[in-house]
Write a structure and sequence with these properties.
Helices cover 50% and strands 16% of the residues. By secondary structure, it is an alpha/beta fold. It folds into 3 domains: 3-106, Response regulator (Rossmann fold, 3-Layer(aba) Sandwich); 127-202, Helix Hairpins (Orthogonal Bundle); 210-359, Histidine kinase-like ATPase, C-terminal domain (Heat Shock Protein 90). The strands form 2 sheets. The protein has a 5-stranded parallel beta sheet with strand order 2-1-3-4-5, sandwiched between helices. The protein is globular. The two termini are 40 Å apart.
Length: 365
Amino acid sequence: MSKILIIEDDDISCEIISNILMPEGYELITADNGVSGLEIAKKEIPDLIISDIMMPEMDGYAVLSSLKNDPRTAVIPFVFLTAKGNKDDIREGMGLGASDYLTKPFHSSEILQVVQVQIEKYKKITRFMDELSNNLVSSLPQEFYTPLNSILGFSSLLQEAIHNKYDMPVDQLSGYISFIHESGKRLLRLAQNYVMYTNLLVFSNDNIGKHVLQNKIVQNTSWVISRTAEETVRNYNRLGDLHCDIQECTLKISPEYLERIISEVIENIIVYSPIGKKILIEGKPTNSLYTISLTFKSCTSREPIQDIQAFMEYKDIKDKQNSIGVGLALTRQIIFIYEGKFSISGNENKDIVVSIQLSHENERI
């Protein structure tokens, strides 16, 4: 039985909504002001919240903002009740992350349809989250152990040296600290990827959140791609192997996500590509798409598999510590959100070509 919280200071309106929903088998909880509604929401964790906007003590906007800042309640669908024709209320509520709105007065069929749609969406999101949690639990040991063991191992050596008053050479000390620092950076990157991937899974089932993301643009595409690529290869002393030929264009994607796509793909190319071999990045617009191609020579005899799923590593490099599968799963999820295309193929020169296609300023796919 789905649980619905109604936050409404008007007794008559609350009774009308209750009389419509109760015969449908929903479990109803009510609150007559925003403060008590917020407390009940955090305690009961309902499947849906229907809230008036103007209320004593705390209005509906404040309730929604507080719920969005709490991980336990952030994905609960939130439906506003608003006066007929009040577009400002609707605009502000949607901007805060409301799932939908009902205009007073409303028909019973309207509220029933909204409730059904939002509860189904919430169930789908929670199923995604449960599956993701299970995948996280099973994959964390495999993905986290290498950098974590490096941190613990080298820090233990430093502790032992201090305890025994061992006069460690400066270059050896510097090496240990460098290993700890780099391992910490890998752990941070991995954690950021998991968080970003989780958020994108939620957005993929939330049309409002997806719409907000899709309205982001990158105007200085050439600079963003080149700078991100250079920073990534510099970490591996491969700056001399990088060659860029990128045409300028305004892309319909968040700069943060474009940077993440480029850096994650190059991180995986570095694992495959021998030192001294060229890594070519090209970017050019066509009629409706902007194509980013990354071409490189592989150090293995086989090509990487094309279907990369979350928490699954490339088959050829599963023993390499930097080959974190969630990075490429994250890349695919970002491209999916922005309605782009992703492919890995070979060419006549036996190069591997990673192709990313995104919408540019003229039109979306």
